[in-house]
Amino acid sequence: MADGWAVQRTGPGDQARTQAREQLLDAARELYGVVGYRETSEADLCEAAGVTPEALRQEYGTREGLLIALHNRVTTTGLRAMEAALLSEGMDECSIAERVRRLFDAYVESVTRDPREARVTFVEVLGVSAVVDEHCKLWRALWTEFLTGEAQRAVERGEAEDRDHRVDVMVMVGTVHELMAHHTRRCRRARPEEVSGELTQLALTMLGSQPVGPTPPR
Predict the structure, then answer these.
(1) pLDDT at 217 exceeding the cut of 50
(2) Confidence band for 4, pLDDT divided at 50, 70 and 90
(3) Residue 45, Cβ neighbours under 10 Å: how many?
(4) 119-167, pLDDT tens digit by residue?
(5) CB 71 within 8 Å of CB 135
(6) What mean pLDDT, rounded, does the chain reach?
(7) What is the DSSP string of 84-140?
(8) Of 85, 130, 152, 175, which has the highest C-beta tally within 10 A?
């Protein structure tokens, strides 16, 4: 799914279509992320992108299809950032607290780097339509699989309660998106490390684990 929108094109005509797709995505990021999805018409998008309505229909179908494509691109960036963190040096030797913190640091930094993209990803997709809801549901299922694997790893290392954490993770994924939406709506932007700190504490609590602190004096 993460690569579902990737299309391989060659030739002058294909290059023009690729350019049109990128221009539409840029326009959507600006208009959806600043003005809002519901306040943006197809005509607004086409004017901002410098393309014809036919180009929008050919590449994304509707403004809703463009919203899904932009959400997919940003969320894929977040997933790739977490995957890269998993492969980073020293990750396998980290405690569960440090491991979870590194994962959320990577995710939050990548998806909040551009406030417009964060607004689209966590706010503008809410309640749009059944089609968009289903798209977000598929992503939540993917995140659940990804993080359930991390929970199982923590259990095997004795750093989390020995039980099936899938339901916990499903709740956590929903809560993560709610927290991200909350921070995105705030007038004062929280620093990425503040947000990832909240998410880390939430995850450790749900896993029945706690951050590793200094050893208390005897």
Answers:
(1) no
(2) very low
(3) 22
(4) 999 999 999 999 999 999 999 999 999 888 888 888 888 888 888 888 8
(5) yes
(6) 87
(7) HHHTSTTGGGS-HHHHHHHHHHHHHHHHHSSHHHHHIIIIITTTS-HHHHHHHHHHH
(8) 85
